[in-house]
Amino acid sequence: MKSSSVNYLLEQLVRLQQRSRSHQRGFTLLELIVATLMSLLIVGTLLSMVIDVFRTNTSEEVQTETQQEIDAALDYIARDLREAVFVYTGDDIEDDRIIPQDDGDVTVDSFGAQLAIPNNSGETVVLALWIIEDLPYNGDDDVANLLPSDTGKCPTGSLEVECKGLGTERRAFSLVFYTIDTSVEPTWEGPAIIRRTILRKYDALDSSGAFDLAKGYVDPRKDGSSFKFWPFDNEGIDLQGDSIDYTKTKRWALVDRVDDPNNTDPNVLVPNCPAGYSRSPRAGGSIAHTSFYACIRNRLEPNQIVVNQLLGGDEQAFNYSGGNQDVFVYLRGNPGKAPNGSSLPLPTLQTQVITRGVIQKLNN
Hints:
Keywords: Membrane, Transmembrane, Transmembrane helix. This protein is α+β, with helices and mostly antiparallel strands. It has one domain. It contains five helices and 15 strands. It has a five-stranded antiparallel sheet with strand order 1-4-5-6-9, covered by helices on one side. A four-stranded antiparallel sheet has the order 10-11-14-15. The chain is elongated and about 140 Å long.
């Protein structure tokens, strides 16, 4: 009896020792592999979620930033248009122009052809307008920036009378034009950029006696010239002489991340021009021009001789009603070329501007 009890106790002790040794062995290799894979799966999922949230936030920030830049560019263009005294239509920019004559009309080149933009294979003129700027151009009244007429240092010869006249006039017409350029340099993020160019009458103008006329500039109020047929006179003679020297004009990129002008995606809204307005650039060409374009109210053509009294000048045929023009401008961005930017184009922004500068306002 006692022997059986002892044997039973010994057996239980052996079993307990075996169980203790089994517990001390830890996890098996298979259990460790499964646990590791599960941990990696959980961590990977969480990390992926964090990255997705970061990318979404970054993409939204890029879209917001792009839309703000596009909106600011549209405001800048609108400010120029408000000060404009004349805005060219798409027909003016792209078509040959016909100057009425009693003995037979004269056909001259389009306005766009006269600009002769260098290396412009990917650049298209969208808006062109004339504004009036105060002289000197920097607007600074310091003595160092006075006009040569203020210091009695006008050049002698053919420019002397004009130079002395600036002391009273103190203003000049400047030609401003906006282009869309798809030949984007590495500095800028495409698909396209908008450039602003301004051709002023004078390259240099200061109290030291500098009085340099800009190459390619023709005053639209003198020598029989006009806004509509610039740079030709009313007989069709080209007054430009030299081509525009773009190394001396103020020419710079206004904004990048502009959508592809040839984007014809049916999901992209492209408003049509209202009746009585001319599109620029015109639709129907090899490029659709849907990302940056304008609708310009057509001018009335009274074909009458008017005298430019704003800044003095010759009697000339402006062929212009003299009323205010108004312009719709449409601009759409695309942040696809920006880091973490979405390739989907943004909504098209638009603005309507009524020009305030008027030459010879007439009652229509």
